[in-house]
Amino acid sequence: MKYKKIFQLALIPFIIFILSACNNTTKETEKTTNYQLPKVALAYSEEEIVEFNNRINQGENNTYEGLSPHNAPVLTAPEKLPSVLFYDSGIDIPYPEEGVKGIYLAPAVFNDPDRLNYLLDYIDNTALNAVVIDFKDDEGIIQTHLESDNSLVNQNSFDNIDFKKLLKELEKRKIYPIARIVTFKDRLVAEAKPEYSFKDAETGEIWQDANGAKFINPFLPEIWDYNITIAIEAAKLGFKDIQFDYVRFPEGFQTFSDQLDYSIGNYQTYVTDDPEKFGQERVYAINDFLEEANDKLAPYGADVSADIFGYTAIAGDAPDVRGIGQNFGQIAERVDTVSSMIYPSHWGLGFFGIPAPDLEPYNLVDQYMYSENMILKNITNAANSRPWLQDFTDWNLAPGTFQEYGPLQVQQQIVALEENGIHEFLLWNPSGIFNEGVDYAPESSGNEYYY
Hints:
Blueprint: H1 2-29, H2 46-57, E1 101-105, H3 113-124, E2 130-136, H4 151-155, H5 163-173, E3 176-182, H6 187-192, E4 199-200, H7 221-237, E5 241-245, H8 253-256, E6 260-261, H9 280-297, E7 303-309, H10 311-315, H11 319-324, H12 328-332, E8 337-341, H13 361-376, E9 384-385, E10 388-390, H14 407-419, E11 425-428, H15 442-445
Parallel strand pairs: 1-2, 1-11, 2-3, 3-5, 5-7, 7-8, 8-9, 10-11
Antiparallel strand pairs: 4-6
Helix pairs in contact: 7-9, 13-14
Keywords: Signal
Domain DUF4015: 102-431
Pfam family, one: DUF4015
């Protein structure tokens, strides 16, 4: 045993020597070798990339490099997510099972408590169940005071309406609240930040339309952030639907845009002289804004809706539609609800073959809904339809081409919707006065109407 131990001790220096040699060998093999990497060049030109993006945006990319994309979604979201995933506003007002049937509450109504209570009682006693309220109005005034990191939000907030108190009252009555946010028509921001607006190239003055309205630039991310910040605050207060109105460029923009100075931002690559696509960058900007708004509002549990000219569902991708940036089908894929403004008085004489549309509200709505339904049924992620109907008289029309609107004319529009499978609507009257005696739910009342 003694000699064995001595032998083992003698082996130790030898083993250490061997391990050292191996270690040195390893270090030598770990020396870095430099290789000359091949130069990488783009396989496609910028024009080809832009063209491919255009096809994506227009839903025309059927194949790419021999591959056919699968149109059906790989994953589908459940119809109802657990409430724990959403911000808790403290206001619990469920979506009406029978569909949203609402009226617009004009700002003046909130200066008259008796009138407001009358309208809320009227809703309680009829099949109506929702209200649309200006959160940010046509001038850009935010109707309640907000505390925000955005200085413009603070600057344009006023203590006009106590929304916390109002929403508690709506919760008690189970009246569904929709916050109307006038988006790109905004005098306050245009005047405070002219660089966010459109300027007359000749005079340098802020451009305004024939009615004196001023707009802000939908191409700018700062403008997106501004409006989305306001929308999030509305959702946090308890509004269940954020309705973006004037989510477009000014009417006729394609006819005078070259006379204005404004930034196109990141959408310059989409600008083209092709008459079949001229103005497409505006459509992409509006689409992208609504998509971002939908994404950022998702954690707050509020639906997103958009007010759209009814004409866009008829005109498709016409130049005047691209001019304002509203493509009905593409918008309908990016929001929860589309609210087409289809007031009979707003259609030209002879439209749909109707000599004077204001005189035939049933026929006008019936003809329109056929066209809208044709679009929505061919969209993978189609939005819900909730049109704006006329509950006012347009006294500005020529004698003989209009009529005074009462319960009958409102009823005709609602029945036309119902016969086209649409059971949601919003009634517009800027004065806040609505016709009584209307059956707002003919689909369930059992009443039959023939027009």
